[in-house]
Amino acid sequence: MENILVAGANGTTGKKIVDLLKQSQYFNPIAMVRKESQMEQFKAKNIEVLLGDLEQDISNSTQNIDKVIFAAGSGGKKVVEVDQEGAKKLVDASKANNIKKFVMLSSMGADQPEKAEKLKDYLQAKHNADVYLKNSGLNFAIVRPGSLTDNKGIGKIVLSEHLSQEGNISRDDVAQTLVRALNDDVANYKTFEILEGETLIGQALDTVG
Protein backbone atom coordinates (compact mmCIF):
# COMPACT_ATOMS: atom_id res chain seq x y z
CA MET A 1 0.00 0.00 0.00
CA GLU A 2 1.10 3.54 -0.69
CA ASN A 3 1.23 6.16 2.05
CA ILE A 4 -0.77 9.23 1.04
CA LEU A 5 -0.30 12.50 2.91
CA VAL A 6 -3.48 14.60 2.91
CA ALA A 7 -2.85 18.27 3.63
CA GLY A 8 -6.04 19.93 4.80
CA ALA A 9 -7.39 16.67 6.19
CA ASN A 10 -9.60 18.47 8.71
CA GLY A 11 -11.44 20.42 6.00
CA THR A 12 -14.84 19.43 4.63
CA THR A 13 -13.36 18.00 1.42
CA GLY A 14 -10.24 16.74 3.19
CA LYS A 15 -12.23 14.52 5.53
CA LYS A 16 -13.98 12.94 2.54
CA ILE A 17 -10.62 12.29 0.88
CA VAL A 18 -9.23 10.62 4.00
CA ASP A 19 -12.31 8.40 4.32
CA LEU A 20 -12.04 7.31 0.67
CA LEU A 21 -8.35 6.50 1.08
CA LYS A 22 -9.10 4.52 4.23
CA GLN A 23 -11.61 2.39 2.28
CA SER A 24 -9.13 1.78 -0.52
CA GLN A 25 -7.06 -1.38 -0.79
CA TYR A 26 -4.23 0.56 -2.44
CA PHE A 27 -3.75 3.61 -0.22
CA ASN A 28 -3.02 4.32 3.42
CA PRO A 29 -4.01 7.89 4.43
CA ILE A 30 -1.90 10.06 6.69
CA ALA A 31 -4.05 12.98 7.81
CA MET A 32 -2.08 16.20 8.20
CA VAL A 33 -3.78 18.60 10.62
CA ARG A 34 -2.81 21.93 12.14
CA LYS A 35 -3.93 21.48 15.76
CA GLU A 36 -3.61 18.70 18.29
CA SER A 37 -7.34 19.01 19.01
CA GLN A 38 -8.03 17.86 15.43
CA MET A 39 -6.09 14.61 15.78
CA GLU A 40 -8.41 12.48 17.88
CA GLN A 41 -11.23 12.21 15.29
CA PHE A 42 -8.81 10.46 12.92
CA LYS A 43 -7.13 8.32 15.57
CA ALA A 44 -10.58 7.07 16.58
CA LYS A 45 -10.92 5.66 13.05
CA ASN A 46 -7.44 4.11 13.22
CA ILE A 47 -6.08 6.66 10.74
CA GLU A 48 -2.51 7.90 11.05
CA VAL A 49 -2.20 11.60 11.88
CA LEU A 50 0.61 14.08 11.37
CA LEU A 51 0.76 17.46 13.04
CA GLY A 52 1.82 20.11 10.54
CA ASP A 53 1.03 23.80 10.13
CA LEU A 54 1.42 25.08 6.57
CA GLU A 55 2.50 28.46 7.95
CA GLN A 56 5.40 26.81 9.81
CA ASP A 57 8.23 24.45 8.89
CA ILE A 58 6.80 21.29 7.32
CA SER A 59 10.00 19.99 5.74
CA ASN A 60 9.75 16.69 7.65
CA SER A 61 6.11 16.03 6.71
CA THR A 62 6.83 13.91 3.63
CA GLN A 63 9.19 11.35 5.13
CA ASN A 64 7.96 7.80 4.36
CA ILE A 65 5.24 9.27 2.12
CA ASP A 66 4.62 7.98 -1.42
CA LYS A 67 2.14 10.55 -2.76
CA VAL A 68 0.49 13.78 -1.64
CA ILE A 69 -2.95 15.34 -1.95
CA PHE A 70 -3.04 19.07 -1.21
CA ALA A 71 -6.60 19.94 -0.21
CA ALA A 72 -5.82 22.66 2.31
CA GLY A 73 -7.39 26.09 2.17
CA SER A 74 -7.52 29.17 4.33
CA GLY A 75 -11.17 29.91 3.60
CA GLY A 76 -10.10 33.21 2.10
CA LYS A 77 -8.41 34.40 5.31
CA LYS A 78 -4.74 33.74 4.53
CA VAL A 79 -4.61 33.01 0.83
CA VAL A 80 -0.94 33.91 0.40
CA GLU A 81 0.29 32.23 3.60
CA VAL A 82 -1.69 28.97 3.21
CA ASP A 83 -3.09 28.52 -0.30
CA GLN A 84 0.06 29.78 -1.99
CA GLU A 85 3.12 29.58 0.28
CA GLY A 86 1.84 26.57 2.24
CA ALA A 87 1.41 24.68 -1.02
CA LYS A 88 4.89 25.70 -2.16
CA LYS A 89 6.40 24.43 1.11
CA LEU A 90 4.73 21.08 0.64
CA VAL A 91 5.98 20.90 -2.96
CA ASP A 92 9.52 21.55 -1.70
CA ALA A 93 9.17 18.89 1.00
CA SER A 94 7.83 16.48 -1.62
CA LYS A 95 10.80 17.11 -3.91
CA ALA A 96 13.22 16.56 -1.05
CA ASN A 97 11.73 13.12 -0.40
CA ASN A 98 11.13 12.08 -4.02
CA ILE A 99 7.34 11.89 -3.81
CA LYS A 100 5.92 9.89 -6.73
CA LYS A 101 2.91 12.14 -7.39
CA PHE A 102 1.46 15.40 -6.08
CA VAL A 103 -2.29 15.92 -6.58
CA MET A 104 -3.32 19.55 -6.15
CA LEU A 105 -6.86 20.71 -5.45
CA SER A 106 -7.01 23.99 -7.35
CA SER A 107 -9.99 25.92 -8.74
CA MET A 108 -11.58 26.87 -12.02
CA GLY A 109 -10.38 30.36 -12.85
CA ALA A 110 -6.88 29.76 -11.46
CA ASP A 111 -5.47 29.73 -14.99
CA GLN A 112 -6.52 33.37 -15.53
CA PRO A 113 -6.96 35.01 -12.12
CA GLU A 114 -6.70 38.47 -13.64
CA LYS A 115 -10.07 37.93 -15.35
CA ALA A 116 -11.91 37.06 -12.15
CA GLU A 117 -14.59 39.44 -10.90
CA LYS A 118 -14.44 38.02 -7.39
CA LEU A 119 -12.00 35.93 -5.34
CA LYS A 120 -9.19 37.43 -7.39
CA ASP A 121 -6.63 37.19 -4.56
CA TYR A 122 -7.58 33.56 -3.90
CA LEU A 123 -7.36 32.58 -7.56
CA GLN A 124 -4.02 34.37 -7.91
CA ALA A 125 -2.67 32.41 -4.93
CA LYS A 126 -3.93 29.14 -6.44
CA HIS A 127 -2.44 30.11 -9.79
CA ASN A 128 0.97 30.80 -8.24
CA ALA A 129 0.89 27.50 -6.35
CA ASP A 130 -0.10 25.59 -9.49
CA VAL A 131 2.71 27.15 -11.53
CA TYR A 132 5.20 26.33 -8.78
CA LEU A 133 4.10 22.69 -8.81
CA LYS A 134 4.27 22.48 -12.61
CA ASN A 135 7.83 23.81 -12.56
CA SER A 136 8.95 21.55 -9.70
CA GLY A 137 9.82 18.50 -11.76
CA LEU A 138 7.41 16.39 -9.68
CA ASN A 139 4.75 14.25 -11.32
CA PHE A 140 1.51 16.14 -10.74
CA ALA A 141 -2.21 16.28 -11.33
CA ILE A 142 -3.85 19.69 -10.87
CA VAL A 143 -7.61 19.36 -10.46
CA ARG A 144 -9.71 22.50 -10.94
CA PRO A 145 -13.35 22.08 -9.92
CA GLY A 146 -16.17 24.57 -10.28
CA SER A 147 -18.13 25.83 -7.27
CA LEU A 148 -18.19 23.21 -4.52
CA THR A 149 -21.49 22.03 -3.05
CA ASP A 150 -22.37 19.76 -0.14
CA ASN A 151 -24.82 17.78 -2.29
CA LYS A 152 -24.50 14.02 -2.39
CA GLY A 153 -22.09 12.93 -5.09
CA ILE A 154 -23.41 11.40 -8.29
CA GLY A 155 -20.11 9.83 -9.36
CA LYS A 156 -20.26 11.51 -12.77
CA ILE A 157 -18.40 14.52 -14.09
CA VAL A 158 -17.49 16.44 -17.20
CA LEU A 159 -13.74 16.86 -17.55
CA SER A 160 -11.60 18.90 -19.90
CA GLU A 161 -8.40 20.90 -19.91
CA HIS A 162 -10.63 23.96 -20.30
CA LEU A 163 -14.40 23.83 -19.83
CA SER A 164 -16.40 26.49 -21.63
CA GLN A 165 -19.13 26.65 -18.99
CA GLU A 166 -19.17 27.43 -15.30
CA GLY A 167 -21.05 25.29 -12.82
CA ASN A 168 -21.06 23.24 -9.64
CA ILE A 169 -19.72 19.95 -8.41
CA SER A 170 -20.18 18.13 -5.10
CA ARG A 171 -17.33 17.79 -2.64
CA ASP A 172 -17.99 14.03 -2.77
CA ASP A 173 -17.18 13.91 -6.47
CA VAL A 174 -14.18 16.21 -6.12
CA ALA A 175 -12.76 13.95 -3.40
CA GLN A 176 -13.37 10.91 -5.58
CA THR A 177 -11.59 12.57 -8.51
CA LEU A 178 -8.58 13.56 -6.40
CA VAL A 179 -8.17 10.05 -5.02
CA ARG A 180 -8.47 8.47 -8.46
CA ALA A 181 -5.91 10.93 -9.82
CA LEU A 182 -3.35 9.30 -7.49
CA ASN A 183 -3.27 6.22 -9.72
CA ASP A 184 -0.09 5.76 -11.72
CA ASP A 185 -1.79 5.31 -15.07
CA VAL A 186 -3.94 8.47 -15.17
CA ALA A 187 -3.50 12.23 -15.02
CA ASN A 188 0.29 12.39 -15.03
CA TYR A 189 1.67 15.91 -15.54
CA LYS A 190 -1.88 17.05 -16.29
CA THR A 191 -4.10 20.02 -15.38
CA PHE A 192 -7.85 19.77 -15.92
CA GLU A 193 -11.20 21.26 -14.93
CA ILE A 194 -14.23 19.32 -13.67
CA LEU A 195 -17.93 19.94 -13.15
CA GLU A 196 -20.91 17.72 -12.44
CA GLY A 197 -21.58 15.81 -15.64
CA GLU A 198 -22.62 12.61 -17.40
CA THR A 199 -19.40 10.54 -17.46
CA LEU A 200 -18.32 8.18 -14.70
CA ILE A 201 -15.33 9.66 -12.85
CA GLY A 202 -13.05 6.73 -13.70
CA GLN A 203 -13.93 6.89 -17.39
CA ALA A 204 -13.44 10.65 -17.48
CA LEU A 205 -9.98 10.31 -15.92
CA ASP A 206 -9.02 7.64 -18.43
CA THR A 207 -9.11 10.41 -21.06
CA VAL A 208 -6.20 12.19 -19.31
CA GLY A 209 -3.82 9.25 -19.05
UniProtKB/TrEMBL annotation:
Pfam families: NAD_binding_10 (PF13460)
Classification via Gene3D superfamilies: NAD(P)-binding Rossmann-like Domain
Residue ranges constituting the NAD(P)-binding domain according to the UniProt record: 8-185
Signal sequence extent: none
This protein's name: NAD-dependent epimerase/dehydratase
Gene source species: Cellulophaga algicola (strain DSM 14237 / IC166 / ACAM 630)
